[in-house]
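From: lab user (bench 3)
To: helpdesk
Subject: output format question, protein + 6-phosphogluconic acid

Hello, I'm new to running complex predictions and I'm not sure whether the block I got back is the full result or only part of it. Here's what I submitted:
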Amino acid sequence: MEIDGAVKLVVGATTDALKACIATHIATAARSAIAQRGRYILALSGGSMPHTLTRLITVPGVDWARVFILFTDERCVPLDHEDSNFNACNSAFLNRLPIPAGNILTIDNSQGAAEAIAQDYEKRLMALLAVHGTLSIDTVLLGIGPDGHTASLFPGHALLCETKKMVAGITDSPKPPPERITLTYPALRAAQEVVFIAVGVAKASLFKEALCFSTTSVDGPREEAESAEAADCSLITATIRENLPFPAFQVRPASGELWYYTDREGASFLPAHGLSQTQTEKMGTGFL
Ligand code: 6PG
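Helpdesk reply: Thanks, we reran it on our side. This is the complete output you should expect:
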């Protein structure tokens, strides 16, 4: 059974093309949010994602002073620790963007255990959103783990049933380190848009299990061209199967768009690496 409502899968023919597409997507969302609401609130994840965001430092026309950064999940380690998601994002690209330090919401480890850090983070997140007159993050960027987890929401974990907290502590994460904080389903689903970035062959079987494609699932243009490399991305419309055991595919924004970005390896379950002419449209002339 499929849900109503299409999701969009973008396949980058090369790593550079994928990075260019992702950077353009975020820059476009940022410019639009800043034009309409005076600020852009972006949530980042860890894992391999920071390395897919490096092209953000080249995008023009974003008023970075009006951009606010938070983390979908964070490991309870010092901010300069090699396991810190902030540290990974900071060294990959954040430290080269003129975002005021006060606009970056990092965890406060002095709060104590994971749950106390989570409560403090939730308080500061809600205060940030309230100042900007909203209850939702503009763009949530998420990864997908090989077991189908996202942020620090793992298959079968009690946190999947959380309905009240926006941020929760976890002390038994199957992916090390075990102590983390994570945004919950309610916080993630309230976002204006959710964008998954999941690359590599390990994601192909998850996408195969989760996504359905119609033979006429060609989508049209979305954005203006910003780079020639981005022309090597293809856009495929899909739907998500129901009753999947993977938390990643349970994160669907209540309103707003849901995107998946992957590379040729991640899309290798599709015929011709997902680039079949009957199913896709090159994004060069319209999308980017
Ligand atoms: C974390 C991440 C986590 C990650 C996935 C995918 O802090 O561990 O936020 O949810 O996004 O595990 O990681 P990869 O992109 O490395 O596969």
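A quick orientation on your result: Residues 6-267 form a domain with the Rossmann fold fold (CATH 3.40.50.1360). Let us know if anything else is unclear.
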